[in-house]
Amino acid sequence: MNKTLRKAVIAGNWKMNNTRVETKALINDLIPLVKDADCEVVVCVPFTNLETAVNLTKGTNVKVGAQNVHFEKSGAFTGEISADMLTEMGVEYVVVGHSERRQYFGETNVTVNKRTKAAVAAGLKVLLCVGELLEEREQGITDELVALQTKIALQGIDKADLNKIIIAYEPVWAIGTGKTATADQANEVCAVIRATVAKIYDQAAADAMTIQYGGSMNAGNAAELLSKPDVDGGLIGGASLKAADFATIINAASK
Ligand code: 13P
What we know:
By secondary structure, the protein is of the alpha/beta class.
């Protein structure tokens, strides 16, 4: 992390976990543990728990995010949720392009770009996910692939709106597998993403951009990952479901 240049952001992606009752318990446990955090703290909860999470975190330093957003403002899109619906509720963040959406729900670089634009236009902050599959890493195409995902996702985004975008580098082979990228691997690809942003915009824009690592980040390995200069935070799945573990990661990012 380089906190002199940019903000550290630790976000929990709860995925499809926690009922409303469980949401209340987890957030109530978390709030006192992270109240002095020197980084942005976000919990991305299922749609059905957003309102509960927004109400519980009012007046605290914990921000709430959704896990997806549709790109149209309204219309015949059964099962979808618009950016305005999220902001009206007090939601500040949204995850876009998570690999699970790419893998299981037909998300493409083009729809990731559309969702990013719609979210930014509505005033949401986007946690924009990119990352390679294991076969792609083995083929030696990680850098090109992640650069391409980044370029397409950012198409049509004005430089002035980049402060609403956080990029999360999540190698797919590290998600939920317990196989974390080494701190050097994470830093290397975060640096590739930063260089890509510099090429599209300029160095100042790239230096200001928060780039997270995600993929089996936990209480034990967070400090080392976050010690790398280009790793500005984390997008955490499993370990964000336990208040104490998530708080340990947040404290590591606060140092
Ligand atoms: P895990 O931390 O469970 O590997 O999940 C990472 C992730 O996908 C966060 O979006």
